[in-house]
Design a protein that fits this description.
Blueprint lengths: L5 E11 L2 E7 L8 E2 L2 E3 L6 H13 L2 E2 L3 E9 L7 E13 L8 E7 L1 H4 L8 H10 L7
Parallel strand pairs: 1-7
Antiparallel strand pairs: 1-2, 1-4, 2-3, 2-8, 5-7, 6-7
């Protein structure tokens, strides 16, 4: 695998009280699965700029300071895609109610009990648990 073949991508796990915002993906990769809102980094953007743009495009929600939680290498070649280096950020909800737009079919805040019953992308539940139990530290 060549670094030039890896597409940079971002997502944002948004915490509001004891709930986490998820979107249902409307396109491949991961169509029909619930995940944190996000997408590809555009040329010239920083990871944080891309994260805020994607969050606004998919949900209309604004967040405070972003904290990088992890990087995940995703192989979506089976879906006709490529390799993605996904940088997952965490942030606290600042303003706005989620409204699905762009490539999201649904956007909402969910409790842990609700999340555990949803079809999720890999590592989503693990990150949700870290946010809710306080092992992932968010600014603010």
């Amino acid at each position: 695998m060549n670094e030039q073949n890896i597409v940079p991508a971002v997502s944002v796990a948004v915490l509001r009280n004891r709930s986490i915002m998820l979107v249902r993906r409307g396109r491949a990769p991961s169509k029909g699965l619930y995940a944190f809102p996000g997408g590809r980094v555009e040329k010239g953007e920083t990871l944080e700029e891309a994260a805020r743009r994607e969050l606004a495009e998919e949900t209309g929600v604004e967040v405070g300071a972003l904290a990088q939680l992890r990087e995940i290498l995703i192989d979506s070649r089976g879906d006709g895609g490529s390799f993605y280096r996904l940088t997952v950020f965490g942030a606290r909800h600042l303003r706005g109610e989620p409204a699905a737009d762009d490539d999201a079919d649904e956007a909402a805040f969910f409790s842990l009990a609700e999340i555990e019953r949803l079809p999720l992308t890999d590592s989503t539940l693990e990150i949700v648990l870290e946010l809710l139990d306080g092992s992932a530290i968010l600014p603010g």
